[in-house]
Design a protein that fits this description.
Layout lengths: L4 H5 L3 E4 L5 E5 L6 E3 L2 E2 L1 H22 L7 E11 L8 E10 L3 E9 L6 E12 L1
Antiparallel strand pairs: 1-2, 2-6, 3-4, 5-8, 6-7, 7-8
């Protein structure tokens, strides 16, 4: 999977949850530091965006798309619910609608408990096959 240069800089990596769905994991270091113990909002948005991209790519592969499509962000709206801690962070995307050229999805990021997200996002992503 080709992530954005910023996602690579932040060392965001893909993992799987218990059901085999793709999640993105980031262990923030100096690159995501905003203030004592808190992640920068841009790093949080990058984590959410990467999780959305991985969710769309995974769904397209599951639907039988042989080649890896180009997935790009059309729009993103982030809701910062609480400060993101400088610990291991995870994010997962849930597809609302997967079309031929556009995907709509929601994403949430959490630290320890997925039921307590620190940020959520609504994304619209473009698909080029």
């Amino acid at each position: 999977m080709n992530d954005t240069p910023y996602a690579n800089f932040l060392a965001i990596r893909e993992d799987k949850d218990a059901d085999g769905n793709p999640i993105c994991v980031m262990n923030p270091g100096d690159t995501a530091f905003a203030r004592e113990g808190v992640m920068h909002g841009g790093a949080i948005a990058a984590l959410l965006q990467a999780a959305g991209k991985h969710a769309v790519t995974h769904a397209l592969k599951a639907a039988g798309n042989a080649s890896e499509p180009t997935v790009s962000t059309i729009s993103i709206t982030v809701d910062y619910l609480r400060p993101g801690k400088m610990t291991a962070n995870r994010a997962i995307g849930k597809i609302v609608k997967l079309g031929a050229r556009v995907a709509n999805l929601t994403v949430q990021a959490w630290n320890d408990d997925p039921k307590k997200p620190f940020a959520t996002a609504k994304l619209t992503m473009g698909i080029q096959r």
